[in-house]
Specification:
Layout (H helix, E strand, L loop, with lengths): L16 H14 L3 E3 L2 E4 L2 E9 L2 E7 L8 E6 L2 H22 L4
Antiparallel strand pairs: 1-2, 2-3, 3-4, 4-5
């Protein structure tokens, strides 16, 4: 006899925004970003910022590498959103490096 809750697979663990923030911090550190006051910086310029907002993780990504950037807002509600944001962060850093003519 099967259970109504058994869909033939497993349910993903519930989303924990505090744990997601810790994961994002590790990813940012791996990308050579420094964390300062909730912001992730590249050579002193803000690239991203993140904060726990209830059951979600509120993240922002700089459109351009400036001292006072224009922010793109994103909401991370699950682990897939976190992976997408981390990939977007990597792409944005690559774009910043290309714009400055740097090797990564």
């Amino acid at each position: 006899m099967t259970d109504d809750n058994d869909a033939g697979g497993f349910a993903p663990p519930p989303f924990d925004p505090a744990a997601a923030l810790a994961t994002l911090r590790r990813s940012a550190r791996d990308l050579k970003l420094a964390e300062r006051e909730g912001r992730f910086e590249l050579r002193g310029l803000p690239v991203a910022q993140a904060s726990v907002d209830g059951a979600e993780l509120s993240v922002q990504l700089a459109r351009r590498l400036l001292r006072t950037p224009e922010w793109e807002r994103h909401t991370v509600k699950n682990h897939a959103d976190l992976r997408r944001f981390t990939e977007l962060l990597k792409q944005r850093l690559a774009r910043f490096a290309d714009a400055r003519g740097e090797d990564r």
